[in-house]
Amino acid sequence: MSAEGLIVAALGVPALGALAIAACGRRPDLRETVTLATATGLLWCVLSLLGPVLGGAQPQLSLVEMLPGIAISFRIEPLGMLFALVASTLWIVNSLYSIGYMRANREPRQTRFYVCFALALACTIGIAFSANLLTLYLFYEALTLITYPLVTHHGGEEARRGGRLYLGVLLGTSIVLLLPAIVITWSVAGTLEFARGGILGGGLSNAAMGGLLALYMFGIGKAALMPFHRWLPAAMVAPTPVSALLHAVAVVKAGVFSVVKVIVYVFGVDRIAGLASVDWLPVVAGFTIIAASIVALRADNLKRRLAYSTVSQLSYVVLSASLLAPLSIMGAALHIAAHAVSKITLFFAAGAIYTASHKTEVSQLDGIGRRMPWTMGAFAVGAMSLIGVPPAVGFVSKWFIFQGAAASGHHLLMVVLGVSALLNAAYFLPILYAAFFRLPPEGAAHGEAPLPMVLALCATAALTVGLFFYPQIPLALARQLAGI
Amino acid sequence: MIGGHLPALQVVVPLLAAPLMLLVRRGIFAWLLAVAVSWTALAIALALAFTVRESGPISYAIGNWPPPWGIEYRVDALNSFVLVLVSLVAAIVAPYARASVAAELPRDQHYLFFTMYSLCLAGLLGITITGDAFNLFVFLEISSLSTYVLIALGRNRRALLAAYQYLVLGTIGATFYIIGVGLLYLMTGTLNLADLAQRLREVHEIRPVLAALAFITAGVGLKLALFPLHFWLPNAYTYAPSAITAFLAASATKVSVYVLLRFYFLVFGVPLVFGRLAMAEVLIALSVIAVVSASLVAVFQRDLKRMFAYSSVAQIGYVTLGMGLANQAGLTGAVVHLFNHGLTKGAIFLLLGGVALRVGATGLQRVAGLGRTMPLTSFGIVLGGMSLIGIPGTAGFISKWHLVLGAIEHGYWSLVALIVASSLIALAYVWRFVETAYFRVPESSAATRNEAPASMLIPAWIMVGGCVYFGIDTGYVLDGARHAVEFLLGGVR
Predict the structure, then answer these.
(1) Whole-angstrom Cα distance, residue A21 to residue A121?
(2) Model confidence over A97-139: pLDDT tens digits?
(3) Residue B469 forms part of a structural domain
(4) Which chain A residue's Cα is nearest to B436?
(5) Which of B37, B82, B74, B36 is nearest to B58 (CA)?
């Protein structure tokens, strides 16, 4: 198949898959087979595109012109490839996990769940492959809306409130800040195409560049930069598979992905390096890292703790992108992948614990490692990766981020990263300690969660370790992005 | 041979259909004729638009009396665009109307309804196509009088009050308009719009011209529900029969906006309106108040029809805002929004007609659980709502983009902020519907699927589809708007 055909297929497979899933809503087995088949099909499309991209090609495709001079168009550059690869790989694992979770917990409205999920993936691929800001924005907003039914899946009062916050913050930031930023870019640059070295040129004063950067960084609410991070903990009312794939991988990564894209391809690293008016970004990101970690430390609800951990980890990406050094740009790209596999493992474990024992609070987890050794083993791997301990992939990305910080002389930020690693350890290790070394309470006898879930979380844990030893593909893509 | 008479036929066909319906006095015949007439009108409008695109403006002398003495029908890039919009809406609403009218009106009034519908269509098309200021007044009255009757046909007795309210204000509006035209005639001795524009430039005694501008602005402003002259609109939209609400919301106010555009840019001219007078500032200020206040009021409405009626006041504010910006991007936003909002609001009110039919009311309380009982209708309203908010991928986004761009080009940063912030208010009222329809359980326990009939759903969904289609493939509409704007900014030639 030609590269154009593959791009169409990568967008079309999940979209058509959603239709097929809706069509066999009355037959759960068939429906879930279709889901898995769709996910596999998508991964095949993405993998077929991987070779050319690694070889330095950038396949592209242009569809209709949405505004005069701005078409809906796609171009696969290294970062988008990496993001698509991560999302499509993890979707297969997540589908497996969803089947176990949704059945074991007898969740209602499962067809709607799988349909929205497939559509969300289509939007994610659209974001990853977008060739200009308008296409990115189109799919970015679509992703927000299509995940709303997933966030409010349970339909109760709590879900409704969570959904309000979710939609309010995400749409609020993207409409009020991001859209004007894009229109300003259009009116200054006369183009919205992503291009290496940026497109803004000399059209704006340095102070205005800082202002525009602020519109982008806060406007991309999915990156959860404080103070626009509250939607992420609110989204935790969703069923765990949603939290796992969407709110640890697809949605939040769409945010930081957009941040990196904007910095590298709209502003241009060289254009803003050394500008005093953009100095605030590492500070805000550093603050978010520390503050979110501290909140995570105090959260007793496991999913809430993981959510704040995500907020903190997302700012790693923003921070390292904002350092504007080639190595730190690499680190940012790698951390998108590293955090994805690690955090999805942690969420899978949280969901498995809930399914097997109906426990949601950290304080209830005494001795659970003895009853659920596989689950908690995987949890340990994910936690280690996020703390940055080898042999897990989190170490690789942090290594580059540290190097970038050192190379660009941001010594204070190295301290921030160090403190943050300690804080990560402080909120993850007590969980592991309680799980493995405390005695379980009497009576509650349960074993592992259903097999599909355990398989899924072991797979992602294996991936977390595997990527430490075999990081070639993400590394090559990140290198291309940074231009090293 | 008939090709040369298309401009006249555009108006004559619906105008002659009306008495025919009255003579036959059969509901079903009247409906069939109304459908045929509105489809014919659409075909004519499209043919005219293509001709204009190919070979420039068409001038048609009624009764072969050459302009400026006789009445001239003049089709150009701007009004051919509006003609297509009006007749398109009519062509979609007419098939829909049968089931809706059958449910809402007593049998013996059906043929009257379609008679008035055809008259109203004739009036709106006439206003748009004519190149004569007095002829425009005549058509304005034809469309207004038929609209009063149509609103009064609403089944709620308060429709009578709403119609009366509109009648009083509409008459004042029309009177103001004709006073303005009278003053212009006094100063120039002509009623032909193109001729007027020529001669106004030679007029040195400017005061009566300014008075004419004021009278016409207030008069037309009343008809298009420009803040603070919008008080008739929420009641009229709320109590009119469903099909009429959709038809009026999608076409009547749009035609009035067109009249204002024509007078400002092509009769009085940019130097007078925006140079000598501060109409830009006035329009922008009024529009901003309209957008923000009407959106806020919409959030607190308890009836969906009323909620979306206030939303209309706000959305018209966007159009007049673009007009006040008076640059290429802003005007494109205004003209495109005429079309996009017509489509969006038409879709929403058509779907609400289905709700009125099945649920019996459009109160927010009564639509609880609508997502389950009428899934297609609810989802259509949600998509329409997205277009009102301006989510990318819907028609509303295209308008908003141009408005924001227009404001940025002027450097009006606070205006940019207000435009985008007001979409969040739209989000608030649309989401009130979403939460009620999808999260609340239906009032009655018998929550079975009870979708609107296909004859209503299909036209409504054609419009919903349009909201999405014209948000992605914008070529045709933007092209039409661009030509219209170039023509407008070309000004007095």
Answers:
(1) 14
(2) 888 888 888 888 888 889 998 999 999 999 999 999 999 999 9
(3) yes
(4) A160
(5) B74
Q: Name the interface residues of B facing A (CB cutoff 8 Å).
A: 386, 389-393, 398, 400-401, 404-405, 408-409, 416-417, 420-421, 423-424, 427, 431, 435, 438-439, 471-475, 478, 482
* A405: its two tokens: 């910080």
Q: Is A187 on the interface with B (CB under 8 A)?
A: yes
Confidence at residue B87, expressed as pLDDT on a 0 to 100 scale: 95
Tokens of A325: 């050094």
Q: Measure in Å the smallest separation between the Cα of A441 and chain B Cα atoms.
A: 38
Residues of B in contact with A133 (CB under 8 A): none
Tell me how many domains chain B contains.
1
**Does residue B159 fall inside a structural domain?**
no
* Residues in A touching B423 (Cβ below 8 Å): 175
Q: Measure B303 CA to nearest chain A CA, in Å.
A: 21
Residues of A in contact with B421 (CB under 8 A): 176
Identify the residue whose tokens are 């289509």.
A122
Rounded CA separation A155/B439 (Å): 6
For A85, counting Cβ atoms within 10 Å of its Cβ (0-12 exposed, 13-18 middle, 19+ buried), the class is: buried
In-domain check, residue B432: yes
Tokens of A211: 């202002």
Q: Range of B342's domain?
A: 287-493
Distance from CA of B481 to the nearest CA of A (A): 12
Q: Does A108 touch chain B (CB under 8 A)?
A: no
Identify which of A145, A152, A179 has the shortest CB distance to residue B404: A179
User: CA dist A11 to A5, A7, A15, Å?
Assistant: 10, 6, 7
Note whether B408 contacts A64, CB cutoff 8 Å: no
For residue A221, what pLDDT is reported?
Answer: 92
Asked if A172 lies within 8 A of B391 by C-beta distance, the reply is no
Residues of chain B with pLDDT under 70: 1-2, 444-447, 491-493
- Please name which of B359, B364, B354, B344 lies closest in space to residue B457, comparing C-alpha atoms: B354
State the nearest Cα–Cα gap between A167 and chain B, in angstroms: 9
Q: Calculate the CA B488 to chain-centre distance.
A: 19
Give contacts of B424 with chain A, Cβ < 8 Å: 171-172, 175-176
Provide the β-strand partners of residue B132. B192
Which one of A66, A72, A179 has the shortest CB-CB distance to B420?
A179
Asked if A65's CB is within 8 angstroms of B393's CB, the reply is no
Domain presence at residue B249: no
* The pairing of beta strand B72-75 with beta strand B58-61: antiparallel
Digit-coded pLDDT (tens) for B259-270: 999 999 999 988
Q: How confident is the model at residue A381 (pLDDT cuts 50, 70, 90)?
A: very high
Which one-letter DSSP state was computed for residue B449? -
The reply to whether residue A145 touches residue B391, judged by beta carbons under 8 angstroms, is yes
CA–CA dist B256, B77 (Å, integer): 17
| pLDDT score of B492 | 41
Contact B125, B14 (CB under 8 A): yes
